[in-house]
Amino acid sequence: MIDFISDIFANIGYLLELINCLLLLNGISKKSKEHKVFFVYCLLIFIIQIITKILFDLSLNNIFLSHFYFVTQFVLLSYFYYLLLNDTFQKKLIKIVTVVCLSLLGIQYAVYPSKFFTFNLFEIFIMSLPLMIYTTFHLYNLLNEKKYFYYINIGLLLYLFGSTVVFLSYRLLSLIATKEIINITWSLNIYMYVIYQLFILKELIPKKI
Question: Does the keyword Transcription apply (predicted)?
Fold first, then answer.
């Protein structure tokens, strides 16, 4: 039953992603650079997830795609927030953190190449935590600025926090929890992603950014 409900929500998530990509694409040539970067991010993540689903349905290994997912998300959203944030210190921090995090991850894969074929918790952590910090920066800046990308930012913060907790706790739960609890916990990530897509939709429909 849990798997059935999760599949339904996953398909809803794919549909919402597609709708959001189309909305972002509409009139994109006249939109801001931030808008264009966010569109590329949404499109690439959508493609990665569809390929992941296809491989899963074919009973083929798709774990390696998680690395493309997290790195793509980190790089594009870091650039997105670099464009979005106006504070000089915040921009400089994004530059430094991006280089440091990608370097650390590259070193890890160089030393332990087998990590590429496993679920890399270190990667998840260093590719997600900085983005949560950037979303917090933007929320703080919005106190005195126009609410630009407000719902997208809120949705992203909620999703990153929730999904990071789910991913990082998965290995621990696999050791101490029942299969049903593990499935429920894993399904939470799907539900949170649907909520994230709804926040994006909320941003796009009324404001047409």
Answer: no
